[in-house]
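Training component of the fellowship. As part of building independent skills, the fellow (R.M.) carried out the full modelling exercise for a liganded target. The chosen ligand was magnesium ion. The inputs are recorded below so that the supervisory panel can assess the work.
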Amino acid sequence: MTLATTDNVIAAEPSLLVRMMRMLLADKFALSAAIFLLVILAIAIIGPSWLGDLATKQNLRGRNLPPFDWTRTWVWWMGADALGRPLFARIIVAAQNTLMVAAGAVILSSVIGTVLGLIAGFSSPRTGQIIMRLADVIMSFPSLLIAVIVLYVLGSSILNLMLVLAITRIPVYLRTTRAEVLEIRERMFVQAARVMGASSKRILFRHILPVVLPTLTTLATLDFAYVMLAESALSFLGIGIQPPEITWGLMISQGRQYLTNAWWLSFWPGLAIILTTMSLNLLSNWMRIALDPVQRWRLEMKGGKNG
Amino acid sequence: MAEHLLEVRNLSVEFHTAAGVVHAVKSISYHLDKGETLAILGESGSGKSVSSSAIMNLIDMPPGRISGGEILLDGRDLLTMPAEERREVNGRRVAMIFQDPLSHLNPVYSVGWQIAEAMTTHGLAGSKAREEGLRLLRRVGIPEPERAMRKYPHEFSGGQRQRVMIAMALALRPDLLIADEPTTALDVTVQAEVLKLLKELQRETGMAVLIITHDLGVVAEIADRVVVMEKGTLVEAGTVREIYKNPQHPYTRKLIAAAPGKGVMHEPGARAEPLLSVRDVRKTYGSFEALKGISFDLMPGETMAVVGESGSGKSTLARALLRLDEPDSGTALWKGRDLFALSPSELYKLRRDLQMVFQDPTQSLNPRMTVFQLISEAWVIHPDILPKARWRERVAELLAQVGLSAEHMSRYPHQFSGGQRQRIAIARALALEPQLIICDEAVSALDVSVQAQVIELLDKLRREMGIAFIFIAHDLPVVRDFADHVMVMQQGEIVELGTIREVFETPRQAYTRALLAASLSPDPDAKAGCPEPPAADAEILIPKRSH
Amino acid sequence: ESGPIKIVLPEEADLLEPCMATRSNIGRIIMQNVSETLTELDVRGGKGLMPRLAESWEQKEDGSWRFNLRKGVKFSDGTDFNAKDVKYSFDRVMSDKNACESRRYFGGMNIKIDVVDDATIDFTVDPVQPILPLLLSLLTIVPEETPMEFVREPVGTGPYELTDWTPGQQIVLTARDDYWGEKPEVTEATYLFRSDPAVRAAMVQTGEADLSPSISQTEATNPATDFSYLDSETVYLRIDHNIEPLNDVRVRRALNLAIDREAFLGTLVPDSAVLATAIVPPPTLGWNPDVKVFPYDPDQAKKLIEEAKADGVKVDTPITIIARTANFPNVTEIMEAIQAQLQEVGLQVELKFVEVAEHEVYYSKPFKDGRGPQLVAAMHDNSKGDPSFSMFFKYDSEGTQSGFADPKVDDLIARANAAVGDERAKLWSELIAYVHDEVVADVLLFHMVGFSRVSERLDFKPTMATNSMLQLSEIKIK
Amino acid sequence: MLRFIRQRALASLISLIGLIVMVFFLSRMTGDPAALFLPVEASAEMKDQFRELHGLNDPILVQFARYVGDVATGDLGQSLRKARPALDVVLEAFTWTLWLAIITMTLVTGAAIVVGSLGAFRSGGFFDRFSSMISLVGASVPDFWLAIVAIVIFSINFAILPTSGTGSVLHWILPIAVLFVRPFGIIVQVVRGAMVGALSSAYVKTARAKGVKSGPIIFIHALRNAMLPVITVVGDQAASLLNGAVVVETIFGFPGVGKLMIDSILQRDFNVVLAAILVTAIAIFLMNVLIDLAYALLDPRIRH
Ligand SMILES: Nc1ncnc2c1ncn2[C@@H]1O[C@H](COP(=O)(O)OP(=O)(O)OP(=O)(O)O)[C@@H](O)[C@H]1O
Ligand SMILES: Nc1ncnc2c1ncn2[C@@H]1O[C@H](COP(=O)(O)OP(=O)(O)OP(=O)(O)O)[C@@H](O)[C@H]1O
Ligand SMILES: [Mg+2]
Ligand SMILES: [Mg+2]
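Fellow's submitted model of the complex:
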């Protein structure tokens, strides 16, 4: 937004970026989360080219090798899978696909859902009604059927998978946004903006959206986990990502049958998902505070003490 | 030493902000006895609300911090009291009327429930509490109290909400009532009722009242003693008479001198082509008729004051004119075009010419925007007004004009006092350089010195730029100083409409006369001889200006 | 001793229709328990075909068959069993008012049935069908009164009748008092359904069930209760010979040589599985012990590919392995390993997993035009003792899953089908060897084993047929 | 109110019809049921005959017209696989699912509100960090994993609960416990987020000034203001339960609509798929009506 430029902070105050950094430093949990996510992101970018070969090298005789064998190189520390491939390396290589599908689906569904929700809450009742009933339809369309249809008609690929998962998640964002908009649009500051002649677009995105955004971010971070796991369920049914592509979800579903005798097969990818979700959530909780002027002191005070 | 009911000793409060620590209250001390009324006067933003919130334990800590002092209630320090005991004090022994009734009422519960809760919390049976609530609503003059009990805060007018707050605070007959600007949104007749109610209760129960106000008339009417605050410190204390007759501190002197109602009455010029011509505007909420056919004309550069009973439809009219609530019928010709018939896109083009300052400043400011963003938003929306490079400069200028400073620019609304927020809202309306500003109680939360400054500013704009005003107010002296015409409303109708001189000097309607009669004089000695003929009264309540 | 037992199965029967009893999820419950057949194949001993509702049968001069039926047999609805019921049962299977699955065993023949008397019935088949008595082990007998449409409450002559069916929850069979044969020890069998193998195993362990005929290899850890058995399923990769480079026998041979079958045993495939040299498992008629499993010889494979390449065969074309998810245990890992091994010898191999409906599109004719070279991983089940149930479909030029056309193969199949006794066995053996060694028709992998968990209360050993038939009368209670 | 319901019913009917039309045509693009019903060895004639028998040989529009006609008379057709009315099959399964969903969501909502609110009340405190962590793990743990672990612990090791199946109250405990976890995790976070905002509002100060105890401040004053997003997300989670909790149904042998739907989709048993979607859609539509009414009930500003 044009208003968020640096010139709106008077000279005595540090720039926005510096302030955000300080606030991040003030929250140890959020800081660790941010670092973890950066690492995951880096891994996702370089993983396949770095460890791609190692992660697919099979060794049937070393299958289901247990973890914590420190005598071997680090890629073996998490043990090996049913084809004797190092789990650590596979998790690293899988990060790319996993994040692509999850981030793609979450971003797509949240953006579409939010925009539709804003429109549904703010426009004429008729438009609202149409959008909402559309959401009802998507909501009652079993995601699995969408998956079968899309993947059967369009074929299975990462992009299509992302699409399927995105479609099924639209209604949450849509309904949440609309419900909040209905209330927020009655608030006085929204009316004040109307009096100033702000366009609907500006009112929606500048005045209403920021109020709904924290809730949506919370939902989106949780959806990350949902999407990663749903993708695993689809793989298991034969309509998701299939080997030799790998994702954490697929690794989990492959480890499923070994749950009782080789727990590590599904445990590590599960842990990766949990840690990613947790980091995202810690970060979104931090952001909720950092972006809310009424709450921001929580971070700034701490920052002050630390600094 | 006889123990005081309330004793505040060396209280200091500070707030942490991004830009540094704000010392809102700096080592103030005062005391209050049973049955006594202490008024806190002072500049807007001087720490009146903060210090009284400290008594109620309502300061957000952190970011706020009580950095020193003690608050003794019957000799016991409230600041060190165990939490459970502290909670029992609130509501039962000390009650508070908040400055900003809309945000302080829970939007999702009916008013009746909220009033009753004050009592049930402290052990009263539900049915009894409702009965009592009903009685209180009636006492504060809410029409149709039975129905009102079931209504939600947003369905009330500003003054009605304030009265709901009052009813809530009085529910448990506290030993100490802290009233933060309890009558800012009330017309003078209702204000008189409320003050009478307070005095009665004081007589009955020996309640002590700590009243924060900027209205010298109210002070004169109800207070025994006065303390004056400026910039977080206590600058003067004394009885009402002492302070009024013999102010010591320069600020106090300025305050008293600034009391409105002493200027020359405007004489509107010849009627020309009206800027705005309103005909037969009606608006109903369900079966309730809020506006019953309002018609008037407004010339360019003129000020139309709207006064009248709380709940008579003043804000509704303002909202209807701006199409914030669609009126049911009627026309409003703006330079010959009917505002009510415009399509949204046409309306959009006209928006910048018509601005409004809302009655509830807090709610009308987006809590997530800094003051700079709030004010400069006008130029983001209408980029042709001002090039971006000049925004900062102009914001600073506007802030200075309404008595704030440039360093407030990066603060957020919640970091301001009620009066300061109101001034931000005014600055925002001015930023658009409109042709008509509708001011809904725009200066009611300002202390007289700032009020005078703002009124002067508005008057200057009117003279120099020809801005017209619809000025909703209950403060008759202000109206007298500023307006050209007055429109008196009662129950959704205009009961009297005329030039300022016509209405103030020869009121025709009984209601107008009552209104003028109920206006309070800041002179504590004036109240004895109050119910004189209204016309003369209007003269009496104007002390001599000390130039 | 006698008493009730509980059996936990992987999937519920959607129907209990006798003419669908050849489908394993239905047959496991009603075959020979509720609905009986005229003949029955001995899967435990080597007794071959045994009488059940037919006491004896003979082939007449003209090639037709006469069956002498058992007398005094009653259906569970109280009606008597006689030859008319047999005729009706057959007609019902062949009717177009239903979609009886067992009809497929009688395809391509013209059958005329004559009821001689109540206890005698003649089958005249054109062309002459030497294995008609074996085929009749697949024809369940229903009373004449049964409607043509599918029924949900089967009536049969078997030792049990259906007494309760709560869809989604359980099916209960109770022993009949008026059964013609020996009274079984199991008085009542309750069937439960759980799709998760770990849960099935756990249920026997906790005593919630007495028998789980299929648990996973990883669960089968307790020697006291867990048994493995050769389960008549054969895993193979069907080669599509029509598309280059798979039309070259050297490439097909290279595929076979490139796979280290031994390495799978005891790892991804149970130790006791058998490396396959034919599409049918060892106890089948004509199974050829002289055919040897392809050795693991990647060097030879590479050489063959080089040779083919030198001859202009496009060996670099990517070959797609198409497999069905959850088709058999470890299917993904096995296919991934095979993919890796094939790539090792220099082939370009892609892997594609599809769900069951899509798999069918690749597996059966008509094949799609414009397809690339494909290997379809599939599993074939033949527990019926005769290769005729497999060979036509898989290898005849007309066979729906056949990936090639070879006149010699067609001829061998036709002759074997018409032959009897040793001649039949010899012809099948010849076919098996020819298909494996000369045509190199496909990549045969394993004859699979299943695992079952049997409570120590019971005395029961699963057999090859357990997948499709679970005779309660064979279960003894300790 | 009556107008609202009438309008809503009409709009819902239209979208329901749209849904059915969509599913009808789309599902038929996904392959031939004959190939799946009959064994791979079945001949072309057999397949053809099967299609003839079930009217699958007719042009798709004819099939559709016939279906519409049947539905209009209340007949949702027969299940291909089960040879019984599709609606019976679905309703049987749906009853189980409905109960499972209702019980689970009631427990989840109650628990999540309490935990999330308390977390928000002392946000950043130990309880907040701890409950956030637990709920986040819950929201991201694979459910089959939980299910198997629960069976191993409670059925095998301690032998206090049955592994799976139906029959007694005990049989419900594990499925509900496993289903509980993920929605709980999600809703706790949503409640917490909304409550942090609500608890810093001015009206909370008023309540404190009245001397209201912390309990009512959290659960009466702030909570109702924070409920809007919460009930929306509760609705979303409930909808996914109504669509069937596949994993739990699969592992615990719970005869719900989720597994039925999957099986029917994979087997292309179209009538069952359609009936299942119809039934769940009606349930979800009804639920959304309730949720919209709840919005208005909770927040008078939304009432119009
Ligand atoms: N949360 C906060 N952060 C920073 N500054 C604050 C905060 N709250 C109040 N202040 C500052 O404290 C000062 C005192 O505010 P207070 O509300 O007590 O003023 P007041 O005397 O009641 O004024 P008014 O008459 O306008 O209501 C103001 O200058 C205000 O800017
Ligand atoms: N949304 C609503 N629903 C129902 N009644 C309403 C609503 N808004 C306002 N009213 C009623 O309309 C009447 C006029 O309200 P309005 O706000 O215009 O009063 P006002 O003249 O501005 O009073 P005040 O001086 O107290 O602000 C009041 O009686 C109020 O109760
Ligand atoms: Mg104040
Ligand atoms: Mg008003």
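The panel noted the following from the submitted structure. The longest helix of chain C spans residues 421-439. The radius of gyration of chain C is 23 Å.
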